[in-house]
Amino acid sequence: MKIAIDAMGGDYAPLEIVKGIEIARDRYQNIEFQLYGTENEVKPLVNNWDRIELIATTEVIAMGDEPVKAMRRKKDSSMVRAAMAVKEGQADALFSAGNTGALLSSAIFLIGRIKGVDRPALASAMPSFDGQHDQFVFMDLGANAENKPSHLYQYGILGSFYATHVLGITAPRVRLLNNGAEEDKGDEVHKIAHQLMKNSPSFNFLGNIEARELLEGTADVVVADGFSGNAALKATEGTALMMLKQIKQAILDSGVGGKLGGALLKPAFKQVQKKLDYNEAGGAVILGVKAPVVKTHGSAKAAAVANTMGQIKTMLDNQLVPDIQNYISAHTEELQSGKQVLNAQLND
Amino acid sequence: MKIAIDAMGGDYAPLEIVKGIEIARDRYQNIEFQLYGTENEVKPLVNNWDRIELIATTEVIAMGDEPVKAMRRKKDSSMVRAAMAVKEGQADALFSAGNTGALLSSAIFLIGRIKGVDRPALASAMPSFDGQHDQFVFMDLGANAENKPSHLYQYGILGSFYATHVLGITAPRVRLLNNGAEEDKGDEVHKIAHQLMKNSPSFNFLGNIEARELLEGTADVVVADGFSGNAALKATEGTALMMLKQIKQAILDSGVGGKLGGALLKPAFKQVQKKLDYNEAGGAVILGVKAPVVKTHGSAKAAAVANTMGQIKTMLDNQLVPDIQNYISAHTEELQSGKQVLNAQLND
């Protein structure tokens, strides 16, 4: 398998990207890596060219660039060239730590949507602290600012495939992020989505979930519209970091006994932080496009990049995208009838 | 001043409600309390009837009751009778620890909206850990499942009044919860709301805020639509509790040194928990109705009930509702022109 790497995206690119790819090359036997990047910056960083190829590009999409414009105009950027390689079948998957919006645009407009998927979504594995499994799939995390009920229905399918194929969870429990447990809760979009999902033959729907329970492990796939999914994700991240910071500060403030306690507790803190660490879990995935496209945090370092290669390898090994494609093309009627129910209800 | 108390609402009603009211009666000199509740349950609980009156009611709205139906049908319930007392001028404010939806319905349909406020909202003071102030106002927390841009604009006004009058913050910094910092972020509702708020002469708008920064103290008023505000609030609460739990568990798991550390750290944990504790901060307020209406957590005990009476006293002492009423009636034109801008944009 071949992975196209945007070597220029991310806060520590290209150095940490290249280091991460070399770690991954040594760890995984059957992957070839294509580094797309500025020749004089990337070339000196590679120690061993075994299964690593450099494709020289002349432009870079910056973090602050307007995504669609950048994708359209910077045709010789590392990201666009890497995406084009996937489109043209020269690579099987795309990786970047760069501009998320531009990567979404490249995935959707260059690599293309899977036929039958209306709105690809950003999905990530998040930690489950209490449940049967260590992780759950959370999507859409912000690829879309607005979603229709039929999109949320499709996310139930896409998320279930990711949970089975990548997290190894059988019959994943799907829930809809809503502002109450009862099925009549939420705005029109969520009420109708609940009805569509409730009757789905495609996945195991267990009803609504409130954001308070996100980390409790009561769902394997949490489906959200992109706007509130994004808000819930960021509130979770912000609160987790703030709690760790506050407890550390309270330890420092509490004098000698507390400081001693703090030293004793370092391993406990590390354990919790590790569970929360995105670098351990890999990157966010754009689901619903014709190839695995994965984005790590802009601040990702080599270890995170290498772990993300493992995640991409799992997606390719387990045929995630072809299985989604086959399923959806075999169930066009189901997806269509869902839309018809929806349209009938919206016109009431 | 007179406060109408729903003595039957909440997990520990009427016992903890009555205990809390007696604490508040001893703490605050000029308040008279009207207890609405089942006579044979409430009467035996009161030790001292000074400034406490019992108004016997025969029905109770349960936590699981359908809100609007319960409010309409249970006309002799403690909650509805207390709301009617406020409506008829026999009391100045309404308190309940009961069914939130029914309290919202009672506030909006019985006590009534302030003229010019389209959609009252649920607001709460939340902890700011890093900023100039200890707390900020967060609204709408779920009174509405859907909001228009003009509602969000009005929340900027309502939230600013709450911040000045109750939290004592001058020129409060208002931000809009959105999925990015730039003004073109979000769905249509948030894009238009941003434009309306940006040009507001009524409050000090500092742009968008992402949910990641909620607790960082960069805003004194965070305005959200009810759906994503609810999601962000619950994600914050759930994550904070989960982090405390995980760190405690990690301490226990880490053996003797860790256990010792845990004992040393108890005061530090308590300090953080106290900051997060809703019982300290008082209840959630329904802003935009003609009297102070305050809801504490269903699990509130006497101390929380007493603190909430202090919060209501501050709202009454500082003329929160009359000042909002006067401001809005003097600025009808501004609110109207905001709506016109909005309509023009939505019709584009």
UniProtKB/TrEMBL annotation, chains A, B:
Instruction: Supply the Gene3D superfamilies for this chain.
Output: Isopropylmalate Dehydrogenase
Where in or outside the cell is it found? Answer: Cytoplasm
Q: Annotated Gene Ontology MF terms?
A: acyltransferase activity
The primary site where this protein sits is cytoplasm
Q: Which InterPro entries match?
A: FA_synthesis (IPR003664), Phospholipid_synth_PlsX-like (IPR012281)
Keyword vocabulary terms for this entry: Acyltransferase, Cytoplasm, Lipid biosynthesis, Lipid metabolism, Phospholipid biosynthesis, Phospholipid metabolism, Transferase
> Coiled coil: which residue ranges?
none
Query: Which reaction is recorded as catalysed by this protein?
Result: a fatty acyl-[ACP] + phosphate = an acyl phosphate + holo-[ACP]
- Give the Enzyme Commission number: 2.3.1.274
Q: In which pathway does it act?
A: Lipid metabolism; phospholipid metabolism
What's its top-level EC category?
transferase
Function, please? Answer: Catalyzes the reversible formation of acyl-phosphate (acyl-PO(4)) from acyl-[acyl-carrier-protein] (acyl-ACP). This enzyme utilizes acyl-ACP as fatty acyl donor, but not acyl-CoA.
The record's comment on protein family reads: Belongs to the PlsX family.
Q: Entry's NCBIfam families? A: plsX
Quaternary structure and interacting proteins, as annotated: Homodimer. Probably interacts with PlsY.
Q: What is this protein called?
A: Phosphate acyltransferase
User: Which gene carries the instructions for this protein?
Assistant: plsX
